Amino acid sequence: MVGLIFQSTRITEFEHVRYDNNLLIPAFPQAVHPALAVFQVGYLNRYHHPKTEVYARYADFGIKRLRSDESGAITLQFGASLTTSQFRQENARYWFDR
What we know:
alpha/beta
């Protein structure tokens, strides 16, 4: 299918693929309903992935979304609960949020 699904933790990770074929994609977030969707996106990528409609669809279903171009390195820690850390949030440049 279009990504990697960890059924026991309900995490969906998306790779760089074409999202133009919307026949299957609209039902995907509703069918899987992950708690977290991780989008691996290159900073200023020329293909503009993920498509705005695809990214928004996950928000419409109440799914937390993280993007590597905005978060930097995303670390998932598995245990009794899932915790995430985002490099750019934890190591922001000193001139941010002043």
